[in-house]
Amino acid sequence: MLELRLLCDNDISLVEAWLNKEHVKRWYEIPHLNITIDDWMSEIKQRGGEYRWLTHLIAVLQGRPIGLCQYYKCVDSDEDFGTLLLTGSYGIDYLIGEEAYLGKGLGKEMIALLVDKIFSFPDARRVTANIDKNNKASEKALLSCGFLLLDAERSRYVIQKANSVI
Ligand SMILES: CC(C)(COP(=O)(O)OP(=O)(O)OC[C@H]1O[C@@H](n2cnc3c(N)ncnc32)[C@H](O)[C@@H]1OP(=O)(O)O)[C@@H](O)C(=O)NCCC(=O)NCCS
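That is the input. Now the predicted structure with coenzyme A docked in place:
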């Protein structure tokens, strides 16, 4: 069973190795937004300071760390969310770092666990993810978890908490 736990300092070198693997780097380096792997690492290293609004979680399968995900309140981020209502919205990012665990349903499971966790927060109304249009595994994982495409141009997906209005 997959579990999520808080990232700790001991995880940092493993996460850095994951972010630099080709299957992750191709989506996490975003040249048109000037986002580099070093930027993701700075956020992790300064998660107790400047980036305390981000929460990083490690996905653990039978005691083995296999992936990373994070969530944050959209109001705390300077990301372009387009028409999304920011109040009550949480953004997420996720990756499976270990290649051997790709394509086995674990990405979907990680996203579902993350969404459940966020929806347990009283202020949470919706969860959003912005992906590269060409990232088919990410797109399908989101759709399988119940996300809907909100903004095709920005490739932004949203899932709404039951009984709450967009
Ligand atoms: C995106 C990611 C988390 C998905 O996790 P995963 O465990 O590989 O995918 P899953 O096995 O859960 O499959 C999810 C869906 O994608 C499909 N899928 C998986 N790999 C695929 C691939 N390479 N191409 C197309 N579809 C794929 C599956 O068939 C499944 O679809 P279904 O629910 O309609 O059957 C994982 O591939 C990953 O970490 N990739 C690198 C980092 C990344 O892209 N992160 C997201 C950035 S937005």
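The domain at 2-160 is CATH 3.40.630.30 (Aminopeptidase).
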